[in-house]
Amino acid sequence: MSEFNYKDGLLNAEGVSLAEIARQFGTPCYVYSRKAIEDSWLEFDTALKQQKHLVCYAVKANSNIGLLNILAKLGSGFDIVSIGEMERVLHAGGRPDKIVFSGVGKREDEMRAALKAGIKCFNVESINELVRLNDVAGEMHMHAPVSLRVNPDVDAKTHPYIATGLKENKFGIAFQNAIAAYEIASALPNITIKGIDCHIGSQITTLEPFKDALLKVLELIEQLKQLEITFEHIDLGGGLGITYENEVPPARRDYIQTILTTLNNTKLELIIEPGRSIVGNAGVLLTKVEYLNNSQDHNFAIVDAAMNDLIRPSLYDGWHNIKRVVEAATVEEELYDVVGPVCETGDFLGKNRSLPLEPGDLLAVCSAGAYGFSMASNYNSRPRVSEIMVDGNQVHEIRKRESTEDLMNGESLLPK
Ligand code: LLP
User: Fold this and answer.
1) pTM of the prediction?
2) Best mutation site among 271, 276, 309, 374 for ligand 1, i.e. most ligand atoms within 8 A of its Cβ?
């Protein structure tokens, strides 16, 4: 159930019209629904109630502290990939012992900070990282809790930039080296083996790749048992897709059911790291048409949001539905490329969209809650936009629009 619906001819987020939000906060801005976020997280958590588990929201999908705070209040865990993300989680009230730390390039200072904070687990992606973590933990007279991220070499059938579980990807320890890596880990004095981890990619819309990866991981667990290497948890990463256009991804509870059936009553704690499926459809990017530029064979709608605000269309050919905020229009529909003001041909939010448009119209770029703001930049010296959280009939500005002074913060002129 979407929380973005038309009421009395106006597109609403929960109980508030997007037109009212645009009037109050200006455009462009991201608008999120608290209910949509909570419902998605709770659907995972409830489906897992028979199993020891932890739903660790993948912070990279959207790291606004207001949003993280909503999840922390539900008791969520968090999957982080940097100390910046860790600081956000802690600031937002997340518990350190519910944080897992993924990523291929953890620096020593990051390891130190995470050990000091007392995180639940490091998802270690290479033997060299394992050795470094052992050294850092040793210097601190600590033991680092570790899962090894194995690469199960399954095809997630997703965009090549967001597939991670194939052997040609940079992620994780190659499957055939996993046993040797665990043997090394178990011999290192300052490493404590806690689990096994895999993440095969993102925007996955069928269950088979998840099942195939899990079966391979279970096989490995059996082999490691023979070597008396045992675990407390299995982390299956994130990756469940959402509907942008006409994809039909599995329902969250069906995804969980498939995992539970495949797990076959294991007593191990199950960790998942969903990002997109929690926040993706819980947010829109609200923008205004500045100009229409109709040439003989192409119509452009130039809007005030751009690729720096939402890079998915430019970077991955990502398709986002674009809707009018005021449902009715007085003009005819035409085919438009909806583009931003950035000086790049690749700056578009949608191509060939049939819309009735006039300058000043408000548009909602849908399914923009995940990898929208978190991938935004200041390219073309464009301040990053504000973020608004709707909660029933209430509206909270959870991030102020940047000013141009903000953009120059920390820069300086030469003395002469
Ligand atoms: N865990 C790990 C280790 C990951 O690398 C990722 C995403 C996740 C969890 C969360 O995956 P999700 O549930 O959100 O699919 N910027 C791209 C997506 C990049 C995903 C990177 N890793 C996009 O906009 O499509």
Assistant:
1) 0.97
2) 276
